[in-house]
Amino acid sequence: MIKLLTFAVIGAYLYFSLKKYFSKKSPKPEFSHSGEFTEDELVEDPFCHTFVAEHNAVSKIFHGKKEFFCSQECASKYQLIQESN
Ligand SMILES: [Zn+2]
Fold first, then answer.
1. Which of 50, 49, 45, 38 is nearest to 60 (CA)?
2. How many CB atoms lie within 10 A of CB 36?
3. What is the domain range of residue 78?
4. How far is the CA of 1 from the centre of ligand 1 (A)?
5. Do 42 and 79 share a domain, yes or no?
6. Which of 5, 37, 41, 59 is the 20 to 30 Å CA partner of 30?
7. 48 CA to middle of ligand 1, Å?
């Protein structure tokens, strides 16, 4: 019985120290709502509706509005749709 309790204590200790370690190591990215774009800001590809990080996205301006795409291919396809309208 004492042995089991020791295991429980050690287990709990390990669990909490690991939890503490990981929460320190990888803090949740904070999104700024000040209007300023952060590096991890996600943007939606209007063609395939995939969310991509803004700094990895391909940006193009359509009708004065900046659109972001996951790839050059999506940008081209979206452009074709826009032009056919
Ligand atoms: Zn896409």
1. 45
2. 7
3. 31-85
4. 59
5. yes
6. 59
7. 4
Q: Which tokens is 30 given? A: 């904070």
Q: Same domain for 43 and 81? A: yes
Residue for token digits 């509005």? 65
How much is the pTM?
0.53
Q: Is the dihedral of CA 56, 61, 67, 71 positive or negative?
A: negative
Residue 36's pLDDT is: 55
Ligand 1 centroid–CA 74 distance in Å is 5
Mean pLDDT by 10 residues, the chain (85 residues): 80 80 62 57 96 95 94 96 85
What are 38's two structure tokens? 């952060």
Backbone angles phi, psi at 9, to 5 degrees: -65, -45
How far apart are the CA of 84 and the centre of ligand 1, in A? 19
**Within a 13 Å sphere around the CA of 50, how many CA atoms are in the beta-carbon half?**
12
